[in-house]
TrEMBL record:
Pfam family, one: Glyco_transf_9
Gene Ontology terms: biological process: lipopolysaccharide core region biosynthetic process
Name of the protein in question: Glycosyltransferase family 9 protein
GO molecular function, one term: ADP-heptose-lipopolysaccharide heptosyltransferase activity
Transmembrane intervals: none
Species assigned in the record: Acidisoma cellulosilyticum
UniProt keyword Cell inner membrane, yes or no: no
InterPro entries in UniProt: Glyco_trans_9 (IPR002201), LPS_LOS_Heptosyltrfase (IPR051199)
Length: 322
């Protein structure tokens, strides 16, 4: 979805410490959710050297992670060939801990002092809670967005101090999760009229024609928008999101990244399970389309309903009077 902009291995010297292999998601959203587990592990093991194995699209989530020794990209291959390749790339290391959040069983065939394998299948409750429970961690640690000082500088250049910014995330990886673009426009205009009169819209979307097409109607209707479509790595996107007064987006990896970056985040839900994938962060809320849980059409979510939740979030943030 976003540009990766990384190398496969870190060449800087890391402290000598336990070696951890962390096998995580192919999608950005699930990868972001898993960062809470990694954050906990790093706090427990401040000298650990961590190897992360994940899908290529999600790689940028871990690019700026401290104590990252190696990043192994796992493009999907026929006949589960990506798992055999991962095994070959990790077989020669004696691991202190192998954590497999994808339930592949790879950990069973590696030299490891400790193994933790998440069982497959859907379970009730939030995805974050499921991961934490599988690790014996309570309460679930909130996700984190890692980015560098260079990423902060890029964000400051793109979104300088001044008027508040409202981030808009009008894209998703499935058309069914996309709120109509004209409603993003109407919601922004309502928030600017009644809450943040000097606000500027910022459009966030990944590279590629599909993302650009979904963002285009919003861009056309808001000529003063700062358009970041396809311009950012994931760490840069996180640094930019952290500068927004509010982010409103469809259920997507970008929504999870915004929450992890600390932005006040409003997630929009319809035919996806809000109980499992609501954004996890200190300042988050959801607006859910009416209808059967996980099956409601997005066009059932009105601008009025989303605006009510957004205004409440801004009040909680002290951006507008209670």
């Amino acid at each position: 979805m976003f540009k990766i902009g990384l190398q496969d291995e870190r060449h800087a010297l890391l402290p000598t410490g336990p070696r951890i292999l962390f096998i995580t998601a192919t999608r950005i959203g699930d990868a972001v959710i898993s960062t809470g587990i990694l954050k906990h592990l790093l706090r427990q093991n401040p000298t650990a050297r961590v190897t992360v194995a994940c899908g290529p699209v999600a790689a940028g989530v871990f690019q700026a992670m401290p104590q990252l020794e190696r990043l192994i990209l796992m493009p999907k291959q026929k006949m589960d060939g990506h798992w055999f390749k991962l095994w070959g790339q990790t077989l020669g290391t004696r691991w202190d801990q192998v954590i497999d959040l994808r339930g592949s069983g790879t950990a069973l065939f590696l030299l490891a002092r400790h193994r933790q394998i998440l069982k497959g299948g859907r379970r009730p409750g939030s995805r974050l809670g499921q991961l934490a429970e599988s690790m014996g961690i309570a309460p679930p640690p909130l996700p984190i967005a890692w980015y560098s000082e260079a990423d902060r500088a890029r964000a400051r250049a793109l979104l300088p101090n001044g008027a508040p910014y409202i981030g808009l995330g009008p894209t998703a990886n499935w058309a069914g999760k996309v709120w109509p673009p004209e409603r993003f426009v109407a919601l922004f205009q309502r928030l600017r009229a009644h809450a943040l009169p000097d606000a500027r819209p910022v459009i966030f979307a990944g590279p590629g024609p599909a993302e650009a097409a979904l963002a285009q109607p919003v861009r056309d209707a808001l000529p003063d928008a700062i358009d970041l479509t396809g311009r950012l790595t994931l760490p840069q996107a996180a640094a930019c999101l952290a500068r927004t007064a509010l982010f409103v987006g469809n259920d997507s990896g970008l929504m999870h990244l915004a929450a992890a970056a600390g932005a006040p985040t409003l997630g929009l839900f319809g035919p996806s399970p809000v109980d499992e994938y609501a954004p996890s962060g200190r300042r988050t809320a959801v607006a859910v389309a009416p209808g059967p849980a996980g099956k409601a059409p997005m066009d059932g979510l009105t601008v009025e309903a989303a605006a009510e939740v957004a205004m409440a979030l801004l009040k909680d943030e002290g951006r507008i009077a209670a």
